[in-house]
From TrEMBL:
One of its GO terms (molecular function) is oxidoreductase activity, acting on CH-OH group of donors. This is NAD(P)-binding protein. Keywords: NADP, Oxidoreductase. Belongs to the short-chain dehydrogenases/reductases (SDR) family. The keyword Oxidoreductase applies. SUPFAM superfamilies: NAD(P)-binding Rossmann-fold domains (SSF51735).
Length: 251
């Protein structure tokens, strides 16, 4: 019996670590061929590809590309088509986060946040869209902080970009949805990754654990399971939704 994603091809941005790495492993375990995107960590990305290829379910290639640039996005599309001949899903996971209060926001940090978190997924979707057939899936990434009253004030730029992503999701669901392509957004709460732990003290980590009903952080695999469902045929009637994967952190 074939695996449910056998023969499908997925581009996953920011997939050399954390949630992205868990996603490519999950999709490949279900038979998908995956494009692992990284910016600087070539050896880490290749180790993930080697692990996937050794298991013999889906295949993996690695592509160095800055998804904040149109050239980087086109490079990913060309690599997927050149290696696998098709694109069935985009998982737009790559993200950038630096903390800053309003008084400390700079134009450079504003540009970096919006280039990576908004411009990147928008223009990668644009570049891939002509190659997506009915039944294809686009999965954007937001954060449950767009819905949480506990949002810290130094998440200003990050939250602004994710608010933009959720609005892009709503509109693209109508645009691409007319072609039978589903567009949804996954909005994790605190997930125990390097990105989440960056710049936080152990006391701050403990606080985020304490405000979850289960008194723990989420795991990357708990997000990858949702992504795998959204790119599968079983999610055929889910379109334009923001799905908060947060264990009750924000309800």
């Amino acid at each position: 019996m074939s695996l449910p994603l056998t023969g499908r091809v997925s581009i996953v941005t920011g997939s050399s670590r954390g949630i992205g790495a868990a996603i490519v492993k999950r999709l490949a375990s279900q038979g998908a061929n995956v494009v692992i995107n990284y910016v600087a960590s070539a050896a880490v990305a290749q180790s993930i590809a080697d692990e996937i290829n050794a298991k013999g379910a889906g295949k993996a290639i690695t592509v160095q590309a800055d998804v904040g640039s149109l050239a980087g996005n086109q490079k990913l599309v060309d690599a997927a088509l050149g290696q696998f001949g098709r694109i069935d899903s985009l998982v737009l996971n790559a993200g950038y986060l630096e903390y800053a209060l309003l008084k400390d926001v700079t134009e450079q940090e504003y540009a970096k946040h919006f280039d990576t978190n908004v411009k990147g997924p928008l223009f990668l979707t644009q570049a891939a869209a002509p190659h997506l057939k009915p039944g294809s899936k686009v999965v954007l990434f937001s954060t449950s902080l767009t819905h949480a009253s506990t949002i810290p004030p130094n998440y200003l730029l990050y939250a602004a970009t994710k608010g933009a992503v959720e609005q892009i999701n709503r509109v693209l669901a109508k645009d691409l949805g007319a072609r039978g392509i589903n567009v949804n957004t996954v909005a994790p709460g605190p997930i125990d990754t390097d990105l989440f732990r960056h710049g936080k003290t152990e006391q701050q980590i403990a606080f985020f654990e304490s405000i979850h009903p289960q008194k723990r952080l989420g795991q990357a695999e708990e997000v990858s399971n949702v992504v795998q469902f959204l790119v599968s045929d079983e999610a055929s009637w889910i379109n334009g939704q923001t799905i908060r994967v947060n264990g009750g952190f924000a309800v």
